[in-house]
Specification:
The complex is a heterodimer of chains A (651) and B (209). Chain A has 651 residues and is mostly beta strands. In chain A, 7% of the residues lie in helices and 48% in strands. In chain A, strand 12 (249-260) and strand 13 (264-272) form a beta hairpin. In chain B, strands 2, 4, 5, 10, 13 and 16 form a six-stranded antiparallel β-sheet that branches. Classes of the chains: A mainly beta (651), B mainly beta (209).
């Protein structure tokens, strides 16, 4: 049978490209019935036309563009390019327990673009690489044990299984990982075995199971007794936050969750992370004014990490309290110097008002056990000497204070409006007001949420590492630090969704003050770089609509950080970004499923209005993009290769 | 609803502000002690100044790594290599010398006034550890600190060809105005014949009283 499949599949693929009546089918092998296979294709044709606006000229970087600013430079003329990308999807389930799937990509030409130029098609063209193995998964799954090998297949975190220290973060944004790095993340192998009586053991290993991590092994053992759960976690990973070659970080966690008084839960966990023990470090200690080092108020103390610094502890309780509120939760986490260096306390209270409005108040207070080395310099402003204590710690030090453990006070107030609480307003995470997190199944005619936050960072940070636009790891510069805020920074978001008949509308507003999250953005005063800024006061408005086969949207952002992670890290915010799109889904006309044949027109305009804080990778431009996407595939019975254009999902 | 709209309208207007965003932060760069302690660590695992490095006279045929794992102590050291190839000096290719400088401020190089004056600091010497791997005819000159004035030679020593880490001291260092904390220069004594260049590792660079 297998031989038959191999011989026949290539001409079949050719035939598939010519068929236009086949129904669209998901490629995931888990959706296939036993003894079936799937062959599918996605074709994307796109054309891009753009021009650089007045005041800028553009040059090529490795992938990103570099825009140079000169207010006398005239606008360029329009240029255009066409691109073609074809994806081939294969999936098969020869027997119930065994399944596999594969996605390959090939490009003809790449339509070069100014908006998000760091992408894999661009990379393929630069590397003269026409084919790419994008993703794959082979899995053998019996009731009590299983094994699989996977490439660029996302996975959940361990938080829902009792991990209180986030040893395994969720990894769902696989397309972005590929786009930014060119690497298939996550990739690895996994094996599991267990039963209700004896619990379940699950082991994963791979070269990059978590975005930016190096070779890692993750192990968990979970055991349920009634509603109670016990879990043990182990992680050994080369994490990216440290600069020493071949250095690995090991962590052990034991955790439990217990139900009490019907529906209330109590969680507790113990962490042991012996990382960089017996390593010397410096801390500054306040003393009599003028009696410290070089006439300062500080003495420098030498210390060393020890075994006790490797431990952490966390506990959380969630309770229903109908007398005062509907529910509340409290949590506290302690992590020793080597285990994370922080205290963190969280609380939130939830109360329903009338039938359709829910109010949620959340507060978080966090501070490091030992704070950062502040940036206080010997000498005078005209003739500065060395920073006291060596200045903010670097990535090679025993530990640092970074954005994960810096002192912070965060307060959030959220009101949810949902007249039909039977369908959740949020899809994945409650009170996270993002388009992607809104439940598409929500059926209320009008629903929405409003959220206000205040965030204060009373002290500074040490120095860590960030990845630049070429995905090169760079260390935050010596002698700089992410500064403490003078007062809490406000921000707010509002989302409104309207469903009337077959028309769906979504409106979003957000704005506030957002600090850059690496010290690179705080260097402008010294280096004279006029483009970086440590904080932006921004505003965003967006709307999207769908009515039958027609869809469209409009977004406007003023002084918001650029779209990539490194834009916020390097303090880069364009003055204004306008984006609009409109499209048509031919599915109904062609008798296909939704989004299987679409044409879409996009317009993006990045504008520089004041000649300050130029974003070198975005500059100012106008760009149009016209794209046509067509997805189709066939499911067939494995034995006879009797391919039928029919849906292949399990009911 | 009205207040919500006013909140976002205020943000929209604030986004137009021309004031420096640094005003929202506590800026510790205003905090100076006024005095100087006994030691200024210039390099230990990393360059501990804001100035950085410059290759001289141009950057061709040389490599500089401030984080070499081949170190005297700690975790990193400086590794500099010159392959002996031509390096332009004022536009003219030559193979007589090449090197690197640990500078105070790139923007202040070759300006009339050096950016720092350490007279009040009271430092008296520069110390460091180094080892070398040099082609025949190549020697290494170390100067420091330097005020950038080409007419007056900075205090200097020549370091030995040694595969072992060796402690060096520039005892007669002059700590007046400073443009470069340290200059390390390879000199090809066989020039104009091309040599094989060489490599130098440098660690624990300090100014001391």
């Amino acid at each position: 049978m297998l031989q038959c499949y191999r011989v026949t599949v290539l001409p079949l693929l050719t035939a598939l490209l010519l068929m236009s009546t086949a129904g669209p089918i998901l490629a995931e092998s888990e959706n296939l019935e036993s003894r079936t296979l799937f062959v599918g294709t996605e074709v994307v044709l796109d054309g891009v036309a753009h021009r650089v606006r007045r005041g800028f000229s553009v040059s090529e970087g490795p992938l990103a563009k570099h825009f140079a600013y000169d207010p006398t430079t005239p606008s360029t003329g329009w240029s255009q390019e066409w691109g073609q990308t074809v994806y081939l999807d294969l999936a098969a389930r020869p027997i119930e327990a065994l399944s596999g799937e594969l996605r390959l990509a090939t490009i003809g030409n790449y339509a070069d673009r100014f908006w998000l130029p760091v992408n894999d098609q661009h990379r393929m063209e630069k590397e003269n690489d026409s084919f790419r193995w994008v993703s794959g998964n082979v899995e053998y799954d019996k009731d009590t044990y299983g094994v699989r090998a996977f490439r660029q297949v996302g996975h959940g975190g361990w938080g829902s299984e009792g991990d209180l220290f986030d040893l395994m973060p969720e990894q769902w944004d696989v397309d972005r990982y590929r786009r930014v790095t060119g690497r298939p993340v996550p990739t690895g192998v996994q094996a599991w075995a267990g039963s209700e009586s004896y619990g379940t053991l699950d082991v994963m290993a791979g070269p990059e199971l978590v975005y930016t991590y190096g070779p890692s092994v993750f192990t968990k053992y979970t055991l349920e007794r009634g509603k109670d759960r016990y879990a043990f976690f182990y992680r050994e990973a080369k994490t990216p936050h440290y600069g020493i070659e071949d250095e690995r970080q090991r962590a052990f966690e034991a955790a439990g969750r217990w139900d009490f008084w019907g529906g209330n839960t109590f969680q507790s966990g113990l962490l042991y992370q012996p990382f960089r023990l017996n390593r010397p470090f410096k801390r500054l200690e306040k003393t009599t004014p003028g009696a410290g080092v070089a006439g300062s108020d500080f003495l420098v103390r030498d210390d060393e990490t020890s075994t006790g610094d490797a431990f952490g502890f966390s506990t959380r309780v969630r309770m229903n309290a109908p007398a005062l509120m509907d529910a509340f939760s409290l949590g506290y986490t302690y992590e020793g110097l080597a285990a994370g260096n922080k205290h963190e306390a969280q609380a939130d209270v939830r109360r329903r008002f009338w039938d359709s409005i829910t109010g949620v108040v959340g507060v978080t207070y966090r501070r490091p056990l030992i704070g950062p080395v502040p940036l206080i310099t010997e000498g005078t402003a005209q003739n500065p000497g060395p920073p006291i204590g060596g200045g903010p710690r670097g990535p090679d030090d025993a530990f640092q204070v970074t954005w994960d453990n810096r002192e912070a006070k965060i307060a959030t107030l959220t009101f949810n409006f949902d007249p039909t609480p039977g369908t959740w307003l949020y899809r994945w995470r409650p009170e996270l007001l993002e388009d992607w997190n809104m439940n598409p199944e929500e059926d209320a005619g009008v629903s929405g949420a409003v959220q206000f936050s205040m965030t204060d960072y009373p002290t500074s940070t040490d120095r860590g590492i960030v990845f630049d636009e070429n995905h090169q790891l760079v260390v935050e510069p010596f002698g700089f630090t992410s500064l403490a805020t003078k007062h809490p920074l406000p921000s707010g978001t509002a989302l409104l969704r309207v469903i009337q008949g077959n028309t769906r509308l979504l409106f979003s507003f957000s704005g506030g003050q957002s600090p850059a999250n690496s010290s690179f953005a705080y260097t402008g005063e010294f280096t004279g770089d006029p483009n970086v800024k440590p904080l932006t006061t921004y505003f965003r408005f967006g709307t999207s609509a769908r009515r039958g086969p027609l869809f469209g949207g409009f977004d406007f952002a003023r002084d918001a950080w650029g779209p990539e992670d490194w834009h916020r890290q390097f303090g880069e915010a364009p003055d204004a970004v306008y984006q609009t799109h409109v499209g048509y889904d031919f599915a109904r006309v062609l008798g296909l499923a939704q989004d299987s044949a679409t044409v879409r027109f996009d317009y993006t305009s990045v504008q520089e209005t004041d000649g300050r804080f130029i974003v070198p990778e975005l500059g100012a431009f106008d760009e149009f993009r016209l794209s046509f996407t067509y997805r189709f595939g066939l499911v067939g019975e494995y034995a006879g290769l009797n391919l039928d254009p029919r849906p292949g999902r399990k009911s | 609803m009205k207040k919500t709209l006013m909140f976002f309208a205020a943000l929209f207007l604030l986004g137009c502000s021309d004031e420096s965003p640094l005003r929202y932060f506590l800026d510790p760069t205003d905090d100076f002690t006024g005095g100087y302690s006994d030691t200024y660590v210039i390099y230990d695992d990393e360059i501990k100044t804001k100035g950085g490095v410059q290759l001289i006279p141009e950057a061709e045929n040389q490599t500089f790594d401030a984080a070499s794992n081949e170190r005297f102590n700690g975790r990193k050291a400086i590794r500099y290599s010159w392959n002996g190839g031509a390096v332009r000096d004022l536009g003219t290719p030559q193979n007589g010398f090449a090197g690197f400088q640990l500078i105070v401020d790139l923007a202040a190089l070759d300006t009339a006034t050096p950016p720092l004056d350490f007279t009040a600091a009271g430092y008296t010497k520069v110390t460091f550890y180094a080892k070398t791997d040099l082609a025949p005819g190549v020697r290494v000159k170390v100067e420091g600190p330097d005020d950038g004035n080409k007419l007056t030679a900075a205090p200097r020593i020549n370091i030995l060809t040694s595969s072992d880490w060796t402690h060096y001291e520039i005892a007669s260092a002059a700590f007046g105005t400073v443009e470069q904390y340290l200059n390390v220069t390879f000199e090809n004594t066989l020039a104009p014949a091309q040599s094989g260049g060489g490599t130098v590792w440098v660690d624990d660079v300090r100014f001391e009283k």
